[in-house]
UniProtKB/TrEMBL annotation:
Keywords per UniProt: Cytoplasm, Cytoskeleton
PANTHER family: NLR FAMILY CARD DOMAIN CONTAINING 3, YNEIN REGULATORY COMPLEX SUBUNIT 5
Identification of the protein by name: F-box domain-containing protein
One Pfam family matching this protein: LRR_6
Gene Ontology annotations for the cellular component aspect, listed alphabetically: cytoskeleton
Domain F-box: 2-49
Annotated compartments: Cytoplasm, Cytoskeleton
Source organism per UniProt: Adineta steineri
Matches recorded under SMART domains: LRR_RI (SM00368)
Entry-linked Gene3D superfamilies: Ribonuclease Inhibitor
Length: 304
């Protein structure tokens, strides 16, 4: 008597699943037939998968489509890491489509996935209505200023996304301006990473202006940009009155001694900043020592 895999007893299928990885169960054990789907969905480990790391699997657009189909009915997954998978704009669209109805995913990592401004637009459309996602990592993609504008538009009325990483996306001053505009109305975002984006003093000015009124952003990463002396002065001016920012990263930004002094002066009046990163700027040892003495006197600032 021949035995078909799809007619095996449920308990025997469970024992087979015991020897499979989470990735194999999700990608290879689904959509064989309706009966097998039902068995997989009733399997205890499948019901408790909350985190899935698919970093560097090169699943591309087609693999992302298959994953999206699985996510449509999944009610347990909260964290999904798809870094280095070349999903592109097409794969991003598949994910965006399912995120419109998904009610469990809170953290999505799309690091280094060849996502451009079109993919950013798909994600922005999701941000307009999604009330579950709290963390989005788009580090090292290519959304540019146009993609930053799409994301900013999506953030205007978003009420849940708290952490956004847009490092290494070539957004420039224009992209920074769009995001600053979004922060005028957004009341959810607490952490914004914009490092390595070619942002100059103009972009820094737009961000500084919004920090005068924004009361939710606590962490701003502008490391490895080119804000220079003028940009540093804009930020120093706002630090005198801002009462919410606790972490500011300005490493490697072509900041010279005179504007390092402006930042030091601002710290005398600021009561909330606890971490300030000024590494790899053009600030003399003498001024760094002076700032260090200020930090020693003011225990509120815990890191330079």
């Amino acid at each position: 008597m021949s035995v078909s895999f799809v007619t095996l007893p449920v308990e025997l299928v469970y024992r087979i699943l015991d020897y499979q990885s989470d990735i194999t169960i999700i990608f290879s054990m689904r959509n064989v037939c309706q009966r097998f789907n039902a068995i997989v969905e009733s399997y205890d480990r499948y019901q408790t998968i909350t985190t899935l790391h698919l970093r560097w699997y090169e699943i591309r657009g087609i693999g992302t489509q298959h994953l999206a189909n699985v996510l449509r009915n999944n009610t347990t997954l909260t964290t999904l890491n798809l870094g280095l998978n070349k999903i592109g704009d097409v794969g991003t669209q598949h994910l965006a489509d399912v995120l419109r109805t998904n009610t469990t995913l809170t953290a999505l990592n799309l690091f280094y996935n060849q996502i451009g401004d079109v993919g950013a637009q798909h994600l922005a459309d999701v941000l307009r209505t999604n009330t579950i996602l709290t963390t989005l990592n788009l580090d090292r993609n290519a959304i540019g200023a146009a993609g930053a504008q799409h994301i900013a538009d999506g953030l205007q009325n978003n009420t849940t996304l708290a952490t956004l990483n847009l490092k290494r996306n070539q957004i420039g001053d224009i992209g920074a301006q769009h995001l600053a505009d979004a922060l005028r109305t957004n009341t959810a975002l607490t952490t914004l990473s914009l490092g390595w984006n070619g942002i100059g003093n103009s972009g820094a000015q737009h961000l500084a202006d919004v920090l005068r009124t924004n009361t939710t952003l606590t962490t701003l990463n502008l490391g490895l940009n080119v804000i220079g002396n003028a940009g540093a002065q804009y930020l120093a001016d706002v630090l005198r009155t801002n009462t919410t920012l606790t972490t500011l990263n300005l490493e490697n930004n072509h900041i010279e001694a005179v504007d390092g002094q402006h930042l030091a002066d601002a710290l005398r009046n600021n009561t909330t900043l606890t971490i300030l990163n000024l590494n790899d700027n053009w600030i003399s040892d003498k001024l760094l020592n002076e700032i260090g003495e200020l930090i020693d006197r003011d225990t509120r600032v815990t890191k330079l």
